User: Fold this.
Amino acid sequence: MRKKKTLKSVKPVVYVNKNINKLTDDFVGFDTQVESLNNAINNGASMIGVVGDYGSGKSSLGNMIATQKRIFRKTIKVSMWDSLIVPKDPKEDKLSILNKSFLYQTAKDSGNKNLTSYVSKRINKNTGILSITIRSASFWLFLFFASLFLFTGIFLSASNFDFDIWGYTIDKNFYIISYFIAAFLLILGLRKSGLVFSSWKSENAKELDTSDVYDIYEEIIKSISGKCRKRLIIIEDLDRIGDRILFNDFVKEIYRFNTLSQKHGIIYLLAIKPENQLTTQTPKDKISYSKLFDYIVELRPLHLDDYGSIVLDLLKLKRVQIKELTGVEIGNELPPAFS
Assistant:
């Protein structure tokens, strides 16, 4: 006699609400959007807006674009959510908070620890004149050779012998050239590696101005740009900004960053809410998305699409468990019970 299965003996079917990370997991139909975005990028688009309501798949689309390894190097992801909570200093300008968060997260997700430390010092209010932070470890290589030539110069200036190298006589007067080479290498190291000085004397005294923001950004670009593949920077959670003025101001900052970095192959993909959901301001404050972005992808909520076919594809993945649980056979049409 066959034992009848009970609900407790059947493993429950669970669908988790999480982002799609690769094209093979796409049952919603994002593949056409991915192809359109790839074509837009190949045709020169570098400022891309992905517009949609919460839950429409903006993050999933970004994840699938990032998997295009033949086009992009490691993708940098920036979440602006942390910048939109109550700031530690209520008096600090909101745009400045967004800029700092963007710069720091971009450096941190690049994987370059020296760059992250450098940017952290630069955006901190206590930047001053004592504590030193470098952007690149190459500084130590320049410092080593500069020190080598410096000590060579000191040694030669104190010695009285000479010797020949390839027909040239090296005597104590060569120390002047050694000093010059040491100074040149040190200056070159400082120029290429960057230094930041910090001091308790200037604590809370320095504000990050526009020139600082762009200087820091240029240093980041020098570190993250590549010669062969492009670099994708995905900025998420901007759809949580409802203030049109703040939103416009920050996106305009990214637009300016993009202008500086186009030749370095940097692509920006911004997840944003529909334009009509931003708070209404005066006509002077209203800037159309079409003026800010090279290419715009509009994602509609899933219930506006053929939701039945989407559900059917999901059910087919668990057709055996569903038959055991309900006795319903999942075929090529959605059963009425699921409509």
User: Anything to note?
Assistant: The first helix runs from residue 31 to 42. The CA atoms of residues 195 and 308 lie 59 Å apart. The chain has a mean pLDDT of 77.
